[in-house]
């Protein structure tokens, strides 16, 4: 697989009454073609801001203050808004968390599906209509021709999300950014949509950035996982390493908070405390106030992103501690 997306030293800030505050702090990652990178973490960790930075859809008071976002070698941070509009919905697409707010309530499903095909693919209305019906059929919507004439409020939540996926995939994008697209759906529809996204990823050959806080979804869809905390990348690895050999205490806490349906005696772990605000300056590791493994070094110096293996990194001073010949690995309880 070849590299599709390369994010280097990205910092995103918000202008507030207290000055410019960083929501994403100097993060770097990449996504290959036909690869799904899941970004996980609690609310406020910077997941959605990272995805909106990629799309160039930050709110008016947000700005990318430094770093680069290369899509097929093209730096998106240097694009004008007009140039980004030509990319969005075409080479670059996004599925939002809540389709009822993302879909236009006064336009039919058919109109909203045809629009990107007419604008980006220069199709006639008749061609776009035919393609739109095919797309709705592909995502499992019954009676697609009939649904074309309906409005968003006339469809169920699962159907609306399938419509959003159809719109996002209409122009066969190189990169799909999905911001918690299954959060509001029941587990049956969620499973169907995850299966569908996996199928379409392979069929189209696109890369996927999938934002979620649900570790069950991560296990289902991820190739690699990036764990974020307080705007920083704290761990990044292939999905198997994250589940079988987590290295950062925060990752371990997230995994231990997932219930095991086969273990009736399991006690779920709670990560004590809460995510720091944007205006909270913390010396050393930003997770140390909540970390059960915190050492004096953690309170004084910010850790680098240590290399655990060639494709596994952890931003934790425990990597310097040699225990049982495993470079400070954290064993899951």
From TrEMBL:
Entry keyword ATP-binding:
yes
Check the record and name the CDD domains matching this protein: ABC_NikE_OppD_transporters (cd03257)
The record's annotation in InterPro entries points to: AAA+_ATPase, ABC_Ni/Peptide_Import, ABC_transporter-like_ATP-bd, ABC_transporter-like_CS, Oligopep_ABC_C, P-loop_NTPase
Output one GO MF annotation.
ATP binding
User: Coiled-coil segments, which residues?
Assistant: none
Q: How does it sit in the membrane?
A: Peripheral membrane protein
Is Transport one of the keywords? Answer: yes
Q: What positions does the domain ABC transporter occupy?
A: 5-255
Protein localization: Cell membrane
- Say where the protein is mainly found: membrane
**Any Pfam family hit:** oligo_HPY
Q: Which UniProt keywords apply?
A: ATP-binding, Cell inner membrane, Cell membrane, Membrane, Nucleotide-binding, Translocase, Transport
- Signal sequence residues: none
Q: What is this protein called?
A: ABC transporter ATP-binding protein
| Organism listed in the record | Lentibacillus juripiscarius
């Amino acid at each position: 697989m070849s590299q599709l997306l390369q994010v280097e030293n990205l910092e995103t800030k918000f202008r507030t009454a207290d000055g410019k505050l960083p929501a994403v702090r100097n993060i770097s990652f990449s996504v290959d073609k036909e690869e799904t990178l899941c970004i996980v973490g609690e609310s406020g960790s910077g997941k959605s801001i990272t995805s909106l930075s990629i799309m160039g859809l930050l709110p008016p008071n947000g700005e990318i203050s430094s770093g680069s976002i290369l899509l097929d070698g093209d730096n998106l941070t240097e694009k004008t808004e007009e140039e980004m509009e030509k990319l969005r919905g075409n080479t670059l697409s996004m599925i939002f968390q809540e389709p009822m707010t993302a879909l236009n309530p006064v336009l039919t499903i058919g109109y909203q599906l045809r629009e990107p095909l007419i604008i980006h693919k220069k199709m006639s209305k008749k061609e776009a209509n035919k393609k739109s019906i095919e797309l709705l059929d592909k995502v499992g919507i019954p009676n697609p021709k009939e649904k074309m004439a309906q409005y968003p409020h006339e469809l169920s939540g699962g159907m609306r999300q399938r419509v959003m996926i159809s719109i996002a995939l209409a122009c066969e994008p190189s990169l799909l950014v999905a911001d918690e697209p299954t959060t509001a759906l029941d587990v049956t529809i969620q499973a169907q949509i995850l299966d569908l996204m996996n199928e379409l990823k392979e069929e189209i050959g696109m890369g996927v950035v999938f934002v979620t806080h649900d570790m069950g979804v991560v296990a289902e869809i991820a190739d690699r996982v990036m764990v974020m905390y307080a705007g920083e990348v704290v761990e990044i690895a292939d999905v198997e390493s994250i589940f079988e050999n987590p290295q950062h205490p925060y990752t371990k806490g997230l995994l231990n908070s997932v219930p095991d349906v086969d273990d009736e005696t399991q006690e779920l772990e709670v990560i004590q405390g809460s995510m720091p605000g944007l205006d909270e300056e913390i010396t050393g590791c930003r997770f140390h106030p909540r970390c059960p493994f915190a050492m004096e070094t953690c309170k004084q110096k910010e850790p680098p992103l240590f290399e655990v293996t060639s494709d596994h990194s952890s931003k934790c001073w425990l990597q310097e501690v040699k225990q049982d010949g495993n470079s400070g690995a954290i064993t899951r309880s």
